[in-house]
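Pair request: fold both.
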Amino acid sequence: MKIALYSGIIVLLLLLCAFFASCDTAYTSVNVLRLEKAAKHGNKKAKRVLTYVNDYDKTISAILFGNDLASIASPVIGTLLAYAIWGESFEYGPTIISIILVFLVLLFGEIIPKALAKIYSYPLALFYVNAVTIIRVIFFPFVWVTTGIAKLAKPIAKKNPEDDAPLSDDELSAMVDDIEEEGVIDESQSELIHKSIEFKETTAEEIMTPRVDIVGYNTEHSFAEWVKEPGVLRHSRIIVYRKYFDRIIGYIPTKELLKAMLDGDVPDYRKLLLPIIAVPSTMEVSSVLKLMKKSHHHIAVVKDEYGGTDGILTLEDILEELVGELYDESEAIHLDVIPTKKKNVFLVSGKMGIHDFFDRFNLDQDEVDEDYNTVSGWVIDHLGRFAELGDHFSYDKVDVSVSKASEYVVEQLEVSYHPRRKKKKD
């Protein structure tokens, strides 16, 4: 009779250990943002869980006290069970039972419950809310004493400087991934937040329109004749320079030029000319954005370390870095990656950003060199010379072949993607 009784009590204590351990993990790791969202939509349990999570010290004290009681009681009952089985004749009985109980408590009362609670923290936190309410009431005297002692000890404890340290970008990204997995945000929202985190480290050089692609008016020529050339007015702003792009003197808003042209002949460009701000190529895009807002000009010339023009950066370029490509009604849609009729074979623009390319084809971003920003630069760097039509090589999961190339630039590649191919070890 005693054996059955003590065995039943031990099973009950193991279940209590499992409950308290899983409850501890569930309330520690539950996603607060998801709880807040559910509470706003009228979920009463989520609201109560949120209250307990915010009052963390009292909640965790009650749970840990219950867990400690169950853990301490287990070996005591185990000793009684040993005497009930063997009596006092077998002196190693309590030791054997204690070893078995330690194994059972660790496996079934700690490891397994905590592992499951980590995965299912949100549903378990809601499921346990009534039990936690009862526990907080039953253990209130103990909780009141321990939290009081903890408050008295806080001024004595030394503050760790790392506690106030800002989160790193990797930690923020990991938090966003966890929130997405919890279902609080969708994939598109997660992508936008990730881009916002990376945004502050992006430099003007990485997203500018390069010098070779700049279209502008050279003051050495007739302005009236230049505006009549096909396609010159398709840009929202006209760059104005003296002889060379290193001498950019300002810009003209195309809409202002068109308004003036509707009133009569082509006006003197100097009457419409606006000053342009200059920024170094290494300047962070976030700082360029602040400068644009302060100056009320949405275009900047990007300068290299020698004072020469590297390219042009507009407000639209900065916005596209966050939300993706933007097109107006008159602009032709340009795709960096175009699928072909062949399976897993794509045509890729040489102007495509190298980070976007590596991300699109699941390549290792750590292999990206800081010396280039585009696929064209990557190919030339890999070949060790200017590319020629027909050049090809294999890299990680892709086979690359140059399908269009000018004298110094790769215009288009044919990329064969092999998702299951393993990277060769050096």
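--- second member of the pair ---
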Amino acid sequence: MDAQISTAESKNWKAPFFTIWTGQALSLLGSQVVQFALIWYLTIRTGSATVLTTVTMMALLPGVFLSPFIGPLVDRWNRRVIMLVADSSIALVTLILALLFAFDVIQVWHIYVIMFVRAVGGNFHRPAMTASTSLMVPKEHLTRIQGINQTLNGGLNIVAAPLGAVLLELLPMKGIVAIDVVTALFAITPLFFIPIPQPERGSGEGGTPTTFFQELMEGFRYVLSWRGLLGILIMATMINFLLSPATSLLPLLVKEHFQGDALQLGWINSIFGIGVVTGGIVLGVWGGFKRRIRTTMMGLIGIGVGTLLLGLIPGRAFSLALLAMAITGIMMPITNGSLGGIMQATVDPGMQGRVFSLTGSAATAMIPIGLALAGVLSDTFGIQIWFQVGGIVTLLMGFVGFAIPAVMNIEDGPAGRSDQQA
């Protein structure tokens, strides 16, 4: 814990942290603009729910199968180097994608492969950045930083979708994809100059360094001993099984059910983003309940309500769809910001790479199956059913969470930890 105390409690933590954070934010903007353009490109070119769910699956598979092994590497290796290599690799494959568009040889499978490679880099980058945040930011400010991150995500949704729609009218796809390469430089450059603290490495019996396998198993034991976290993971797995396919099908919902185009999709994403920013502000001003897990469960119920409404609205009532997306957006930071603050404040810094990777992998494990089913069945039976079922399940999980003591006591940490600290 010495690394966290010496760095996170420093009065000078803001400048280095927010320099890196700003570069990452600019890179995320470029990535989301390109992602919007690619999704709409595939929607217009193929009109297939199977294609859209497949490209989403390519972005998820590395997280499901590689994250458990990435976590120990994040805790063992230099986290600054991990982020440098990950960001650089993502920029390189994106440049290849731009060249494929430039030479007019792009195929759908090219996009699948490049999305997969980008996802591998992202699954190294995310736990490294999240774990580094815990060492760069004082503990009392972690929830606030979570709120800022949630507000950033909302702001990007406001800006990225309309910007992507405008750029689709002004630039060829090669030019839009190249934007992501340029913005990636803003994320990469600060990492060359700003050091990132490392947690103290654990050791085995007799003081000998632990092996990769030992640290991998230690991560599994840490998560399995935490009954509240296991309850959250089971809930997240069930929700993601239905909500992630619904999200990936949103472009087709706009195009086919609401008879819209890229502008309407942009409005949907922007209203969602405005909701996220609003929710982040509400959470920042209100602060949530004293037990942050109560705030998380309340937000989860709200997400269920908004998603269910989106699945029930008739095609002629697009304005009501915007209201449903606003409700969902408001509840997202209230849910994720509170839970993220709990995790960063409770999990040992030296374990965070493993824990965040394992929990992320477990929570997304069922998504590929859901996507595979959603693509085929929605092409056959329609799209709205996924929003209806996903909304009902999410709503129920929020109420069920309040009834599970282990979930409501998650802030006490893993089993036995409070006893050791007493």
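Observation on the second member. The first helix runs from residue 2 to 8.
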